[in-house]
Amino acid sequence: MQTVKLNNGVEVPILGFGTFQITDPKEAEDAVYEAIKAGYRHIDTAQSYLNEEAVGKGIAKGIAEIGVTREELFITTKVWVENVSYEKARASVERSLKRLGLDYVDLLLIHQPFNDVYGAWRAMEELQSEGKAKAIGVSNFGVDRAVDLAEFNQATPQVNQIEINPFQQQTENIAALKAEGIAVEAWAPFAEGKNGIFKNEILTKIGEKYGKSVAQVIVRWLVEQDVIVLTKSVNPDRMAQNLAVFDFSLTDEDKAQIATLNVGASQFFSHADPEMIKWMAGRTMDV
Questions:
Q1: Residue range 48-68: average pLDDT?
Q2: Superfamily name with CATH number, domain 3-280
């Protein structure tokens, strides 16, 4: 598996398995197990997904039955908004580790750019120095917010996990983050199927040229930008398909055609929307 080296030397498998919206405990446990069986070594969850315990069980089953070691796996979780402060971040991460059944996570992220991000970041720096997080970073932060965090603290975020897909390509932000030494990770690479993405004429024609699916074309497009990609499926065949992207390359013409699909806006919501910020601030969970 190709990896991306972070600014602290930690290496991340470039393809990861996302667990967002897999809320049924048995389904989440089985999905993680099947993902490891398919060849994924990078698993992504979050406090707000409410599935850390099930994800942990899937990881444990994968280690026990498939024969992978903990050291071969790269596990990410994220601190939700209500826990984004110095004291709450530390306590919530301890609870996350307990739910996951792990002594450490490989990547710990601030999930959203709200609440006391500076206090939470200091707690995460401490957790990293204690070995409870191999790498730390942020999610959904603008480039300016990520740089601000870096300039006034000890550690530069190792990762920024943001929405990237053919309709929201974020080309300038990817370049700017990389220039700051911050690795880029893509959530919702398939835009959750919005705007008929899986039947898109441009992506379909490119896929036909290589005998690949639209999903594989999108994953390959991101891999060729050295962007870490999180895909999600509960179907083992699709899990395997999303990994099979290292046997072809896109041409400059292919990439130019994909560039025409960019609308330059989120396919979901704006993090600058006051109502969305209020909604996140009010979304409390037992974490």
A1: 97
A2: NADP-dependent oxidoreductase domain (3.20.20.100)
